[in-house]
Amino acid sequence: MTTDVTRTHHRGIITLTLDAQARRNALSAGLVDALAEELQRCATDEEVRGVVVTHTGTTFCAGADLREPPRPAAFVGLLRQIVALPKPVVARVAGHARAGGLGLIGACDIAVAGPAATFAFTEVRLGLAPAVISLPLLPRMEPRAAARYCLTGERFGPEEAARAGLVTEWAADIDKALAPVLDGLRGSSPQGLAATKKLVTAKVLDAFDQQAEALAALSARLFATEEAQEGMASFLERRDPAWAL
């Protein structure tokens, strides 16, 4: 148990809750490590049929913690771990998700968003690119929608997120929508779940195997540029960046 990620177990379903509200559940090095550790525990627990990733507060995940960002390789490792986990992983998104938070959602097998959820690929506005998170997202999202929202950084809601393939569905009552999903997992065999997940994630894992190293390097290079430093400083200082027109 950590202060950043809490764990509960109910009838074969482990719920991992991102619980760093003071940082809007941002992806700090500590949170990434804690989530990876909890997922590893789930992978080897024979009583677990599925994992739900959710959050406290009004934000699912604000993206990378700009004050304590994880190493790109560590974040790549976390995303691949979710995709390759032999248990289905379900995202329960009741609040806002930005940048790397969308990567977490994309890595999950199933994602359900509530009416208060909003989404944005904000990297482009900081002098960055959605490099690492493109690995789980591009194989799953509608291409035109991915191009629009990655290039503009626009905010969009849960209905559009479902249309674009970012989430599986959106629902006014998120827990009611999740109930048949979780019951379906509880009624499935461990062997069947593991083998089926391997089939449906094959293309996503191929993307990781072929591109992860290069995209992690791209992310690291962009973070080190003067333009990205200006973008992150302007965000933290709540002002327009120097390039804004």
Number of strands: 9
Read across the widest sheet, the strand sequence of neighbours is: 1-2-3-5-7-9
Assign the CATH superfamily of the domain at 5-172.
2-enoyl-CoA Hydratase, Chain A, domain 1
Helix percent reads 40-55%
Secondary-structure element pattern, one letter each: EEHEEHEEHEEHHHEHHHH
* Count of DSSP H/I helices: 10
What is the CATH third-level topology name of the domain at 5-172? 2-enoyl-CoA Hydratase, Chain A, domain 1
Strand content: 15-25%
Query: Biggest sheet, in brief?
Result: 6 strands, mixed
Mean pLDDT: 96
Overall 3D form? globular
CATH class of the domain at 5-172: Alpha Beta
Give the uncertain stretches in residue-range form. none
Radius of gyration equals: 17 Å
Helix/strand/pairing category: alpha/beta
Tell me the distance between the termini. Answer: 46 Å
Descriptive labels:
Enoyl-CoA_hydra_C, alpha/beta, globular, 2-enoyl-CoA Hydratase, Chain A, domain 1, 245 residues
